[in-house]
Amino acid sequence: MGEKFARNLYCKREDLILKFKIENFMGKVLIIDDEPDILELTRHILEMAGHSVVTADDADSGLVKIRTSQPDLLIMDLNLPGVSGWDLLKIVRQENKNLPVILISGRYKTSLDIVRGLNDYLADDYIVKPFNKDILLARVEALLRRRRWQTGKTDGEERPALICSGVLEIDERQHLARIRGQPVELTNTEFKILLVLAKRRNLVFNRQQLLEEIWGYCPGTLSRTIDKHIESLRKKLGPAGQKIQTVVGVGYKFVDGGK
Question: Is the pLDDT of residue 221 over 50?
Fold first, then answer.
């Protein structure tokens, strides 16, 4: 009797976990890769996890599907025939700064390849072939989870849409920052940093914590890239950039003082 009850309770718990994941973290994923085996494998992994998948095998068809299928997340190879993955990503970012992008490539040589993808081309993550399916799924679901939190509801609860501090407004739903009502042109990463800090005012984040909040993982070799993003963010915010304060030897925090 006790074993049957425990088994039923466990099954109900698993059903609730699965229901929560499907309602909150499942999404439409576009995969662009010219290697048929990798394309099929990635599609199979994502579909088995409950995601809807659209595929393309070159940059041209991939760009068409980005515009027509409106995916929640893009996974793309860098070594594409014709138009390169780098050039495709430039076009994607010109048209849509908020679409989460995971780069997948077998051309990794140094950490500079990852830095280039994340900083110069504004990708959200970088995975090296051959990849582990569990790591791929974890990163996909982390980005989809953040996208859901940025755009509206999760688990039935309405999240705050607008954060105000002096002349600075941060519109979470529109993924937009304003100074005295005028939009400020921020990159996807800069907006994420601003949102994370502003939502937890006066709480100090070290660089590794910010990397975890924004990218879902924290390779130590990339932690200093946060400093570059903070520097750029402060400049774009003007006097309101003083709200992002450096805590020497620790990290950064957002305060309400100043303009």
Answer: no
236: domain CATH number? Answer: 1.10.10.10
Based on the fold, state whether residues 165 and 48 are members of the same structural domain: no
Q: Tokens 């908020």 belong to which residue?
A: 98
User: What's the rounded Cα separation, in Å, for the pair 257 and 165?
Assistant: 8
* Amino acid, single-letter form, for residue 181: G
Note whether residue 207 is domain-resident. Answer: yes
259 assigned to some structural domain: no
User: Where are the alpha helices (H) located in the chain, listed in sequence order?
Assistant: 2-25, 36-48, 59-69, 85-95, 111-115, 133-151, 188-199, 207-215, 225-237
Model confidence over 149-162: pLDDT tens digits?
665 544 434 445 67
Token readout for 186 is: 């921020």
Helices (H) and strands (E) in the chain, counts: 9, 14
Q: Using an 8 Å Cβ cutoff, are 201 and 245 in contact?
A: no
